[in-house]
Amino acid sequence: MRNLLYSLALVALVYVLASVLSGSWLAGAIPGLIAGSVLYFVLARRSFKQFETLATGAMATLQGAQQDPSRVDAAKQVLLDGLALGKDQFLIAEQIHGQVGQLAYMQGRNLEAREHLSQAWSRDWMSMTVLSALDHREGKSADALARMEKAKAGGSGQALYWGVRAWIAKDSGDSRLALSFLAEGLEQNKTSAPLTTWRDALANAKDLDLMAFGAQWFQFFPDHAQRLRPDQQMRLMQEMGQTPPTRPAANLPPEPQPNRAARRAKGKAEPGPQLPHPRR
Questions:
Q1: Is 269 exposed, middle or buried (0-12, 13-18, 19+ CB in 10 A)?
Q2: Which tens digit of pLDDT belongs to each residue from 197-209?
Q3: I want to staple 104 with a disulfide (CB 3.0 to 4.6 A). Which of 109, 244, 264, 278 is the partner?
Q4: pTM of the model
Q5: pLDDT value, residue 255
Q6: What is the share, in percent, of the chain residues with pLDDT greater than 70?
Q7: SS (H, E, C) the chain
Q8: Cα–Cα distance between 167 and 213 in angstroms, integer?
Q9: How many CB atoms lie within 10 A of CB 164?
Q10: Measuring CA to CA, which residue among 251, 192, 219 is closest to residue 127?
Q11: 140 and 125 in contact (C-beta within 8 Å)?
């Protein structure tokens, strides 16, 4: 906002000066617009650079969050500390709210997530898709689909956007609508293997593969991880950079036991325990 006000002030100043010096009120219009546009470009670029630095710092803070969940709260605070940038430039505060909301959703803090995601930019497809997933989980599927329609301009080029939209429709009981979303998504993403896989499965009344979109899918539906087969859960953990747990010893097959002849032979080959020599 302030960047725009500074630019408009410069437009007015240059306009007045150029008009007075030239003796014509029309002569100052073009110089004023040029000066104001240049200043706005410079100020906006500076603000977005500051936001990029802020976002990079938040990402660095998130490193190791799987081992230390408190890092997620720390990353959110890094972003929230940058809200003052929103007073300088349009859309920065909206992007900060969107990212904080996504992190809160990842933590399972749905009320906090909704508070921030509701303040995100309506064309931020990722934030709007997360908010739509939250709506669907709370039984507001119609609101979810309407919200995703508004985010279509930003998300139409993303196969994941169409996947979430199709899932919400199918899970709401409208497989025909889900198929139409998948078909429309393939028009925008012709080589998308996940969309093709889902379209074919849905057309043949088969279950949808929840791992088709990889680990990204579970940003929207973390509870779906519980529906995966053991081999899919292993694959998900690998994609997320986690070490799959080793199989418990209780589940290992028992070691083969030697028969009587083998035990007898082993007893002859190996000396039994030796008593210690008596001290003298």
A1: exposed
A2: 999 999 999 999 9
A3: 109
A4: 0.80
A5: 42
A6: 86
A7: CHHHHHHHHHHHHHHHHHHHHHCCCCCCHHHHHHHHHHHHHHHHHHHHHHHHHHHHHHHHHHCCCCCCCHHHHHHHHHHHCCHHHHHCCCCHHHHHHHHHHHHHHHCCCHHHHHHHHCCCCCCCHHHHHHHHHHHHHCCCHHHHHHHHHHCHHHHCCCHHHHHHHHHHHHHCCCHHHHHHHHHHHHHHCCCCHHHHHHHHHHHCCCCCCCCCCHHHHHHCCHHHHHHCCHHHHHHHHHHCCCCCCCCCHHHCCCCCCCCHHHHHHHHHHCCCCCCCCCCC
A8: 12
A9: 26
A10: 219
A11: no
The per-residue pLDDT for 244 is 54
Residue 114, amino acid: R
